[in-house]
Write a structure and sequence with these properties.
Chain A is mainly α and 171 residues long. Helices cover 71% and strands 0% of the residues of chain A. The chains are: A mainly alpha (171), B mainly alpha (504).
Amino acid sequence: MTSGRPEAAPHQRGGKSGIRIAAVVLLLGAAIILYDAISISERGGLAPGEPGFFPMAVGVGLVVVSLLFLLRTTLMQDKALFVYAAEEQSETHWNTVWLVIAALVAYAFVLQPVGYIVSTSLFFVGIAWVAGSRRWIRDIIVAVLFSAAIYFGFTELLGVRLPAGILQGVL
Amino acid sequence: MEVFADLASGFANALSLQYLLFAAIGVTIGTLVGVLPGIGPAMALALLLPLTYGFDPTGALIIFAGIYYGSLYGGAITSILLNTPGEAGSVATAIDGYPMAKAGRAGPALATAVMGSFAAGIISTLGLTLLAPAVANLAKSFQATDYFALMVLAFVSVTALVGTSIIRGLVSLFLGLFIGLIGLDFLTGQQRFTFGAPELLGGIDIVIVVIGLFAIGEALYGLARLQFAKVEEVKFEGRIWLNKAERRRVWKPWIRGGFLGFIFGSMPTGGSEVPTFLSYNLEKRLSKHPHEFGKGAIEGIAGPEAANNASFSGVMVPLLTLGIPTSATAAIILSAFQIYNIQPGPQLFENSPDLVWTLIASLFIGNIMLLIINLPLVKVWVRILDIPKPLLFTGILVFGTLGVYSLSGSVLEVIIVYVIGIVGFFMRLYDFPVAPAVLGSILGPMMETQFRRALAISQGDFSVFFTRPLTLVLLLLALAVLVLPTLLPRVLPRRTATDAGTTT
């Protein structure tokens, strides 16, 4: 292996806890959607043909199937799913997942103020590092060329506007 | 026949030097993107959508057809050499393709895939040519209740037939329906599920859903497993062309796969998963060498690859004639239509016959381009697999972000695509099918429109859904699709016993 990180050993937690957390998060999300659907129905009317009917149907439906899914992970356990999830989870490097998600959020927020070329180059090098690449010079060269090529290709050839950001005066 | 005269005029349009060049570019870019591990046709189209903004509608659609065929072929390369199918449709190809490649027969495996795709593409595009005008004619008499029932059938079949669990399929479907409802109500203008954000008033574009679920979700999944990845890449070497014994074994599966793919593709079940697996099982049953299946039987590539390609022309039937997309790929093509203000449906064949027939002609041309450009270049395409994986997945994230940002110029939509991508990652991790979510988000609003239109016409009388024979038949069919898979094993106890023996 190219990366010598100690936490790279497979997680042996099994699929149960992760999937139960997913089921609970799903149910919470469904509850929020149902709550919003109720307020939509109060304003728009609930009868079929009125704006509230479909949101209500979706909200109720989502809560029902989320409950069923929670049931399949607790009381009526879906064994095949647990085996599948355990295998998938043991092959998932969770630190990478969280770091990539953090990088994505940061990228979205700096995209406009910092500009496309700079933020994309930084994002590219950062993700490559998180993913285990340790060849800095290659990654930086690729990142800068790649983001500059996209920037000029899109703004000059396709007429799609991308933010120049801090390079405003230079470009 | 009239359709052939129409098709000929389509060819006359598509055969201009400019459009031929577009088709060649499309096929090349499509292969380039499709050959990246984990990228299938739907994702390739979603990622490359921004590239077509500068073209006229016909040119853009020709590039699209090229990208589709190219990415299909690219997907076959990764399935066979890396055992990483990019989409459900090429899973069956990997079952026998990868063992063949390991045995040093990667060339014939790829040639079977490409030539089979070509043969099936011609069969199914002919099918589209003959069937589409007839369906469009028939569809003129369709009423709102019929459309509603058709979409119910599409939802039920994608949820019940694709994936392993109906509950998880329904979760995926309802999440998609929720996304589809976000925005202004089309009749009253009331805000729904906008959570106070003005950017959400216009709703969430299907391209965002697809890029999120496929591109961002898939790249996240790939990055997360990179540290443990133990992909055995097979080196490509040896002959490409089929020898005589192989040729004799593949032509029948090609033809059967072509018909299966077209027929199942044109039904509301949509997509390529069902026909490719049907074709695989059919070939296994009909083959004189059933013991070779799973170990590198060439029929196991010929049939499913043919079905995979043919299902695309099949999916174009409901898309062009009814305006109903039944697969993720079709959903992207529909949103490309919408960018150019083209509304597919029964009127499309009357209002823009030039566009339709040029598109159908370009499907033929895309198939031929694929055969003459891509097959000889296979050794070049294989080099793309040498790109270091961390850079590759990072590139997918950057392209996905670019696709969304260039579409809207809004940071909130970029955040939304990331959220959808993270949801997609967990759906992948816990075996939730994503196809129902994609279809739900695009068909949901259409279904609501037809439902409310039907009720407005009948002045709130629900009986319209049960008195019109066509509507009733479609709804009963949907019920059958939903109930039969759970009911049949109980009626046929012996099958449950064998199933239980194999699945647990």
